[in-house]
Amino acid sequence: MELFDSHCHLTAEQFDADRDAVIQRAMDAGVTRILTLATDVSSSRAAIALAEKFDAVFCAIGIHPESVAKAATRDLRLIRELAAHPKVVALGEIGLDFYWDKTTADLQQKFFEQQLELAAELNLPVCIHDRDAHDKLIATLENFAPAPPRGALHAFSGDAALAQRAFDLGYVVSFGGPITFKNNKTAPALLNALPLEKILIETDAPYLTPHPWRGKRNEPAYVKLVAQQIATARGLSVAQVAAQTTHNALELFRLKGQ
Ligand SMILES: [Zn+2]
Asked: Which of 36, 90, 150, 209 is the most exposed place for a label (fewest CB within 10 A)?
């Protein structure tokens, strides 16, 4: 079985004590590829360094919406330069977050649009963060002319209608730990309704830890629990879900043959 954790943060300080062991545990659990996401310039550099060290690790670099207040305009120039590295396969994570901080909404929008433009210019897909910003975020993509760069809506928290708008743009949606939570009543029907060819799996480690480890630190090995949840909802085997979601991620990040 080959699993692809399409979104995590391996450079987070929560992994400082045992990062290599965490990656090894993921490989032992069948996770053959991991995409680690940056949130600012320094974590972008760290992500690239980690990807250089491990064949299975690839990276997405960029300015996260929660990092825009501390970001400078020149940071986008640095991201552009760093994106030339062969293990940078996407820009991310980028997007809008009106849950943690609404006061930076205009600045978030500016960085989001500029990074979409950069991704389009560099011909890279994007990994998008959307928290309490569904309408504004999907409208930004729909209004992006002539077409937005391809991408994934990570930790998807919308409904089937929002997912359809994303699919219409050529996007995929990515699911993580929250679909395994016991109090998530809507996930099974949604997971059953969406086409499996449009779904990625992720951990967002060290955050959003799936059941039964909720409350503890998350790590990429647990992406199998996410695959298991989708398999249960759809009446498939974990292996089938792993194969299709890995195929989807390899296609989006243009990693076929790697
Ligand atoms: Zn993330």
From this structure: 150
Q: Degrees (nearest 5) of the Cα angle 142, 145, 8?
A: 60
3-state DSSP call for residue 199?
strand
List, for residues 137-176, the tens digit of each pLDDT value: 999 999 999 999 999 999 999 999 999 999 999 999 999 9
All structural domains of the chain: 3-252 (3.20.20.140)
Of 78, 95, 91, nearest in space to 120 by CA: 91
Separation of 189 CA from ligand 1 center, angstroms?
A: 24
pLDDT of residue 101: 77
This model's pTM is above 0.90: yes
Which residue is associated with the tokens 């979409």? 116
Ligand 1 ion: nearby residues, β-carbon < 5 Å? 204
Residues 199, 6: Cα–Cα separation, whole Å: 10
122: three-class secondary structure by DSSP: helix
Helix (H, G, I), strand (E, B) or coil at 112: helix
pLDDT digits (tens, 9 = 90+) for 91-140: 999 999 999 778 899 999 999 999 999 999 999 999 999 999 999 999 99
- Ligand 1 centre distance from Cα of residue 10 (Å): 10
Number of other residues whose CB lies within 10 A of the CB of residue 245: 27
